[in-house]
Amino acid sequence: MWSEFWSYADKLVDTGELILAGDFNQVSREGAARRWSRNKWQFLLNGLVTTSFGLSLDETALSWSPVSSDARLVPTFSDHHLAIADVRL
Question: Domain segments of the chain: what residues?
């Protein structure tokens, strides 16, 4: 599944820069990207605990290196925190 996901993301990057954001349901996202993607993704949440049950499952990944970035989490009523990423283009 991850091979297909990163292959699809790579095809989207071929048409321009890409931001991926979501619940990946995987703790080793960076390792999966290194293994199956030909791009060098920049992961903004960097292993922050994104759930109320102590796991890092959510991510915002960029297909380029931004000038600067910052990410923070806001607890919500959900089992996943709200992730806010600021990216300077």
Answer: 2-88
